[in-house]
Design a protein that fits this description.
Thiol Ester Dehydrase, Chain A, alpha+beta, 5 helices, single chain, globular, 29% strand, 33% helix
């Protein structure tokens, strides 16, 4: 089950926090609970993605995106992600999630998130390609920029490895091969 109570708690904190700029970093604190664990008593990789949600959605609220989504009746979708897991997170461990927008193109906003253990080690890192949607499909970032009332005309340069990932995604066939 999705951790709605945790999300409500994190959103309440985000409402009390100062508004942040589109390129600022949102920092959130979490604890790995028993229902987040796999059979090896460590954070399940799928649940790690859910904990990243708990960092990303309050970040969107602090940027002003959640209010725009409600006002415009737009949706928010993840169009792709690449994740690297490096250190185990065990039950009841505290973790810090850092979330930030690193750039955009005409259709997508790229978000980088990292999960840090209390000993200072990075447990995992993810980059996501997100899209704002309406009834006609993807809302372009110039429309998003206007709705947010901020300047998103020129994106910072994406790190080279992210740009290469974007290129690779553009080459990837869709739909994928399916045995008949």
């Amino acid at each position: 089950m999705y951790p709605f109570f945790r999300l409500f708690k994190d959103m309440a904190r985000a409402r009390k926090a100062p508004r942040m700029g589109i390129l600022d970093t949102h920092v959130s604190q979490h604890r790995c609970m028993p229902w987040d664990l796999d059979m090896w008593n460590e954070l399940n990789n799928g649940r790690a993605l859910t904990l990243y949600d708990l960092g990303r959605i309050p970040m969107a609220a602090r940027i002003g995106l959640v209010g725009v989504l409600k006002r415009e009746r737009w949706g928010l979708a993840i169009a792709g992600s690449v994740v690297r897991y490096r250190r185990r997170v065990h039950g009841f461990n505290r973790i810090e999630v850092q979330s930030r927008v690193i750039g955009w193109d005409r259709r997508f906003v790229y978000i980088e998130q990292s999960m840090w253990k209390t000993d200072g080690e990075c447990a995992s890192h993810i980059v996501l390609r997100s899209a704002v949607t309406d009834g006609n499909g993807i809302v372009t970032t110039d429309r998003l920029s206007a709705a947010l009332g901020i300047d998103m005309v020129e994106s910072p340069a994406l790190p080279e490895w992210v740009a290469k990932w974007v290129e690779a995604e553009d080459l990837r066939p869709w739909p994928p091969h399916r045995e008949t």
